[in-house]
Amino acid sequence: MSRKLIAYFSPLNPVHSGIADYSEKLLPRLAQHFDLHLYGHDTPPSSPIINSIFQWFPRRNYELQRRKTPYAINLYQLGNNQCHQFIYPVMVRYPGIIFLHDANVHRARAYAHLGHKNLTDYLDEIAWCHGDDGRRIGPAIAHGYQNSILYDQFPMLKLICESASSIVVHNQFAARRVAAFIENDRIFRIPMPYADLDIPPYTEARKALEIKDEDCIIGCFGFLTPEKGIDSSLAAFDDFRRQRPNSRLILAGDALDKDYERLIRNKIQDIPGVVMTGYLDEQDFKRWLSASDICIALRYPTQGEGSDVLIRMMGAGKPVIVPAYRQFLEFPEDTCFHIPVWPNEPLAVLEALRELADNTGLSQSIAGKARRYITLHHSIDKWVTAIAETILRSMELPDIEPLSKRCNLRHVRTAPVEESIALSVYNWGDISTSPLLIDPLASAMAELGIDNES
After folding, report:
1. pTM for the model
2. How far apart (Å, rounded) are the C-alpha atoms in residues 372 and 331?
3. What string of DSSP letters covers 282-334?
4. Cα separation of 12 and 16, whole Å?
5. Is the dihedral of CA 173, 178, 184, 189 positive or negative?
6. Total tally of structural domains belonging to the chain
7. Residue 50 φ/ψ, nearest 5 degrees
8. pLDDT tens, residue by residue, 268-285
9. Same domain assignment for residues 368 and 237
10. Is the N end or the C end of the chain the one with fewer CB atoms within 10 Å?
11. Same domain (yes/no): 24, 63
């Protein structure tokens, strides 16, 4: 049987994204089952392994390559981040398998429109997604009335779900949320994988980081956002360290933006023992994770995210404090320390820290059961097999009509004009497909509403 060729769309390193890391774990293993062409925005992959195995193309070249080498199916890796925006123009015209890493994309969609001063398209899309409620709330959000709770009520998933031939999610909560828009037989649940089999030993990591034996290290890993309970963790740690002055709270990851980073740095000036590491490379990430005694993984509201960081914490045998909320409740009680989000999250975090620090037996029991649970249910071999089988099953599903042919949103109806121009240039035969040529023409065509079928 001939191998199928897949067009694979995802951010890849050097883009700082958990989904880039997810793809770089998956791709070499998926290449054992399929041939793949990789598509990104403008920045080529930085991984020597990825570059040695795969051909990578900027998204604007997709139309050209599709005509040269037809694809069996497209695969799209999508999350609630602006680094995925390059995927949408292709996705709405060419249905494929969508790996949905966040069951809420409102923040990304708002940025895609409002970040480019395009109020009309934003208001049209939120109304199309959420009907009269979306039509009423859209102007308020567009003019600055924004918060996580409001985004939670308006996840703006309809465009993604109606573009997909099938959808892969990481947990039952996300599956239930997308089931409002797509048939159950097109929804597949594949848990996040655990691949950290080479974490340095605890004592070795602490020695490398110059951590004393008596120090209690509390780790918060991953992208720092307001939804991840940073304020609650800081307040709890401030009280905790008064009893245990040899404690440190490690905030390990990039902040949401410069403003939020500045806000956190201002707060920790009065809290000794807090360390902000910024983005960590893989070696330092593993060192800090191994060196940690307790980990915190808060999130409210949560959107059915597949948390690679949480899986890595639990797989490394760390007792992790998590909210008793949505997809976190899918982990058995004895594999992590569930705390209530309401009415007082900082107090709940503080009490959990005290109990885990004072009760070594409990801490070790949770850590051991966490490691065994992740090893059993999040095996990387099972993960790859499940994905390969899902791709084959998705290829057998009945085709769906592209969303661009059945949706009245202007920005969906209009073709991804960069691809259209690139295809035309290719047919002309002797003109460069440089962005210097394509981008100005694309902008002009978009303003006129011209697509490649006009």
Report:
1. 0.86
2. 12
3. HHHHHHHHHH-SEEE---SS--S---HHHHHHHHTT--EEEESSGGGGGS-GG
4. 8
5. negative
6. 3
7. -60, -45
8. 999 999 999 998 988 999
9. yes
10. N
11. yes
